[in-house]
Input
Amino acid sequence: MSVTVGELKDLLLRFSWERRDWPREDVQREFGALVLYLMQQADRLGIDLVSAGEASIVHQAASVPTLVPAKRELDA
Output
């Protein structure tokens, strides 16, 4: 079975809505399986997940407007 990253994101979103009534232990086991799969695929592709996560945070932060002025704007 082959799943694209976009499809995986869609599956996770659907999973979060459809499985709200599952016992916590079942959800925890399913998320554990997903994390292991993601780790295996990242390792196979030579991707450092921590660095990828940090880069994603930086990218997302740059694209979201801030409501609080930056310190340099307050000092001006």
About this structure: The CA atoms of residues 63 and 71 lie 18 Å apart. The chain has a mean pLDDT of 79.
